[in-house]
Amino acid sequence: MPYIGQRVTWTPCAYRNVDGTENWKSTREKRPVHGKVVYINEAHRFFLAEALVFGYMLRECFKF
After folding, report:
1. DSSP labels for 32-49?
2. What pLDDT does residue 11 have?
3. CA 19 to CA 17: how far, in whole Å?
4. In the prediction, which pLDDT does 54 show?
5. For residues 9, 28, 62 and 6, what is the CA-based torsion angle, rounded to 10 degrees?
6. Which tens digits make up the pLDDT trace of 25-57?
7. What values do phi and psi take at 34, rounded to 5?
8. Can you give the pLDDT at residue 49?
9. Cα separation of 35 and 47, whole Å?
10. pTM assigned to the model
11. Cβ(60)–Cβ(49) under 8 Å?
12. Do the beta carbons of residue 13 and residue 7 sit within 8 Å?
């Protein structure tokens, strides 16, 4: 189970299609981003991670 402040690495959802293949129309480099866990919802079993990407704060939720 993750904890607040834990470092995480993921490929943002915006770089992928719904079926999981890479989005070839994306103009960004398809590299993973590095961020940290900022919120955990144990009842619904997900956590929120955020990372600074190209000057913007990117936030994405993940099930565990």
Report:
1. -EEEEEEEEETTTTEEEE
2. 84
3. 5
4. 82
5. 30
6. 655 566 789 999 999 999 999 999 999 988 989
7. -120, 125
8. 97
9. 13
10. 0.76
11. yes
12. no
